[in-house]
Fold this sequence. Notes:
Blueprint: H1 3-17, H2 22-41, H3 53-64, H4 69-88, H5 115-123, H6 130-145, H7 149-153, E1 160-161, E2 166-170, E3 176-180, H8 183-196, H9 221-234, H10 243-256, H11 261-268, H12 273-276, H13 285-294
Antiparallel strand pairs: 1-2, 2-3
Helix pairs in contact: 1-2, 2-4, 6-8, 6-10
Amino acid sequence: xxxxxxxxxxxxxxxxxxxxxxxxxANYSLDILKLMKWMDxxxxxxxxxxxxxxxxxxxxxxIAREVNPRSQSRIISGLRGFFNYLIFEEYRKTNPLxxxxxxxxxxxLPDTLSEVEIDCIIxxxxxxxxxxxxxxxxxxxLYGCGLRVSELINLKIxxxxxxxxxxxxxxxxxxxxxxxxxxxTMKYLKxxxxxxxxxxxxxxxxxxxxxxxxxxxxxxxxxxxxxxxxLTEKAGIHKTVSPHTFRHSFATHLLENGADLRAIQQxxxxxxxxxxxxxxxIDKSHLSKAINQFHPRK
Length: 298
């Protein structure tokens, strides 16, 4: 079996059998492509069925000198999943990464913004332009609903249930969830839809897409990152801020103000509560409040 064939079959398996998003599949494929490129540059001729543990170890040793431990751990995990798939399909009997340990990582806490910083970033938007009104609505929706970038750019008008106070979000693996929408976020969405979006030359493929560019097409992930980066720089905030930072801030501020962790898990679309629990490490003040409020020996 050739590597290109194995990679293609693995991508089809991830898409059809596991229901993973295209972005997730692309990230897994990148790890395998790095191994393929390294083999070519070192003139190593070994098929996916027969590549040895020693060869994989040599590759891991090489990348350990080029990338940080977090990236190294992700590559090891990606390759381990690929070879597990080959075992599942009976192309191999063993996984060459079975005895290779990932580097020990400390738990990385996500960057967050304060409410003041979020207001500061939004205040830098030029609201005299149609794009400015759109950008304000984008940031208010990211922060107000805790969306991922992919969820934001794929949000549909038919997913907005204003009367019920919810929006339907399609997350990772095409899993859908309903997220409550605050009245302020709803207000900005209504303004954008009724006063800005209606005047765009909307393309047929984007008729149901909420956020559009000036040509009437859906926005790209890169565009959302650019909008956030430029506004953060204008606001003079010296943090690593991305669209995902607004999602982290959404969860952190809810927790700080007393929201239930399970409710936050559902709104974020996390499969496991352990993923959501990372936010309990950011600000522990709510833990003291819980003791003082609920413990009989307070």
